[in-house]
Design a protein that fits this description.
Layout: E1 7-13, H1 17-27, E2 32-39, H2 46-59, E3 67-68, H3 84-90, H4 112-123, E4 127-131, H5 136-144, E5 154-158, H6 174-178, H7 180-189, E6 193-196, H8 198-201, E7 205-206, H9 208-215, H10 220-239, E8 246-247, H11 249-258, E9 263-268, E10 270-272, E11 282-284, E12 296-302, H12 304-319
Parallel strand pairs: 1-2, 1-4, 2-3, 4-5, 5-6, 6-12
Antiparallel strand pairs: 7-8, 9-12, 10-11
């Protein structure tokens, strides 16, 4: 087992395939201590995501890590339904129809929003919060306790697109588009944000040559990772046939959380458009353009090979 030595890490996940890979990357990273997972909606319903996260933690020998259930829908909606495209990309169960034992554990009695607040007060600048789905839980925590905006050490989010087109519309990336109001609130209120968006995640691609390395381990963990990720790659062959693999969206956010030097960033005060026709767009806030205090860093370049090498080394070591 990797013995964590560094920062306290919270992953906020709508546990689909790349979220599962993000969990594995975090577990294989000695620089960070994964203290909990908070569940959200998106790739799957929050209940399915929590169940997936618990099962994956158990599979990788970490039943000690708690999982907290978060808000089940966006801040402006009364319910949530998984989009057909999400089910196509991640499978109906969120993990590419791969089958692993269901965990006997359940979500903690504390809700995700309270856990975020408690962790911010407890760990302060030593806390890194990594949301890889909608920002609904984080926005709710900031609204419930505005003081944590200055306490959280770093927020490294997977979402947005600054220099490239979106993936659900020409303007909007999927995670941000789930709850643009929450994302806009986070960008305006939080401090020390790093946005790891499509600008860089679509440059970090996994292929079947990589997943074969996991199959060659001949372990239950390796087989699960390979089966799940091959499903993801097959979906990408339909949705983005010219890409040449599947994007490592959520794992890259974890990679940047533990090793910020993996990306080059642009200091910027961000906002999210909440009205049509550009609803969900992440862009610089013109009203804060000349503010010398930049609350966000947008990743615009990435050391692809170094990240892929670290990704494969850490996850393969965990799966062996």
């Amino acid at each position: 087992m990797v013995q964590p030595t560094g920062k306290k890490l919270i992953l906020d996940l709508d546990t689909g395939i790349d979220d599962a890979l993000a969990i594995a990357y975090a577990l294989g990273s000695p620089e960070a201590d994964l203290i909990g997972i908070t569940g959200t909606y998106g790739n799957v319903l929050v209940e399915q995501g929590v169940s997936n996260a618990l099962a994956i933690l158990d599979l990788f020998g970490r039943p000690d890590i708690p999982v907290y259930s978060g808000l089940p829908h966006s801040s402006t909606a009364e319910s949530f339904s998984v989009l057909p495209i999400s089910a196509f990309i991640h499978g109906k169960n969120g993990i590419g129809e791969a089958q692993i034992p269901q965990s006997p554990r359940h979500a903690e009695p504390t809700d995700a929003v309270d856990f975020i607040i408690e962790s911010a007060h407890r760990y302060g600048e030593n806390l890194i919060y990594v949301p890889t789905g909608p920002l609904t839980n984080l926005a709710a925590a900031l609204q419930r306790d505005p003081g944590i905006a200055g306490e959280i050490g770093k927020i490294v989010l997977m979402g947005g697109a600054l220099t490239v087109s979106g993936n659900v519309s020409p303007c909007a990336e999927a995670n941000i588009s789930q709850d643009p109001e929450a994302a806009d609130y986070v960008f305006r209120q939080a401090q020390r944000i790093t946005m790891v968006g499509l600008d860089v995640t679509l440059q970090t691609l996994l292929t079947r040559k990589h997943t074969q390395q996991w199959r060659d381990l001949h372990t239950d963990r390796g087989d699960f990772l390979a089966e799940m990720t091959d499903y993801y790659i097959k979906a990408y062959e339909t949705t983005a046939p010219n890409l040449g693999g599947c994007g490592l969206h959520d794992p890259l956010a974890v990679g940047v959380a533990v090793d910020p030097s993996l990306v080059g960033t642009l200091p910027v005060n961000l906002k999210v458009d909440t009205e049509d026709p550009t609803r969900g767009r992440t862009i610089g806030d013109v009203n804060r353009l000349n503010d010398p205090d930049k609350t966000a860093q947008a990743a615009v370049t990435v050391d692809v090979q170094r990240f892929l090498d670290e990704f494969m080394s850490r996850i393969s070591g965990l799966a062996a």
